[in-house]
Amino acid sequence: MLLFFILVVAGSLVFLELFTFVYTTYLCDAPYLPLDKKNIDLALEVLQLSGNDVFVDFGSGDGRVLLSALREHGVKRAIGVEKDRYQALKSKIFLKLRYKGYGTYCVYREDIFRPSTKLLEDLSQITAVYMYLFPSMIDRIYIQLLEQKRPFRIVCCRYSLSGIPPTSVIKGEEFDSYYYEIG
Length: 183
Fold this sequence. Notes:
Rossmann fold, 19% strand
């Protein structure tokens, strides 16, 4: 009986992962494409994160970038914004199980283009941004961030901001990332 229960739970989790992959790859604004640890570390190193930073990951997926920003870079606050319900839940559980530290974190399951008052409050304090999204999404988020009228740093993985020269380009094995200092 226990074996049957374990098989049902494992099968359900495999089905959910497969469904999420297909759904986010073909039906969403941005697919769920997890980066390996090496690429995450490279992107976050360029941001030069510290204990004074409020960090946001747009399209935070399973929360691994948030965990790295908190654990290895000691940010004051890490904010994840994820539209997909399953990925947001997965991220919250992942962080709750894996992070025991001093910085705080929050994962919003929201559309960044229709943010809640609480999310807007958090975004007004950001100092560092991480995005691994399609170019059209990156450009729309950038325009929205400019409304905050405060300096911040951005790393965009794979795609750059349209028409804005990056402060530096980070050469990666699989793809380049683009670093910007704004304001």
